[in-house]
Design goal:
A 4-stranded mixed β-sheet has the order 2-1-4-3, covered by helices on one side. By secondary structure, the chain is α+β, with helices and mostly antiparallel strands. The radius of gyration is 12 Å and the shape is globular. It has one domain. The N and C termini lie far apart (33 Å). It is built from 1 helix and 4 strands, in the order ββαββ. Helices cover 25% and strands 29% of the residues.
Amino acid sequence: MISPVFKEIRPDGTLKSAPVYAKMARGAMVNWIITRAARKPTDLLGFGEMGWEAGSEPPASGNWLFTRPVER
């Protein structure tokens, strides 16, 4: 099982958890999956709602990092 993890990239390059935005991103991802009938983890490479993008190819299992620049 793959678990998406959403973190914002700070100006200094560090990653920051943003729980409220992560919750919104999970909802946006579910909507995106349903409307596009995504079936495979690699289908999520096209997910870009709210500025989020996959940091790499999907792992076989575990956490999959999605990032975006921190909002100001």
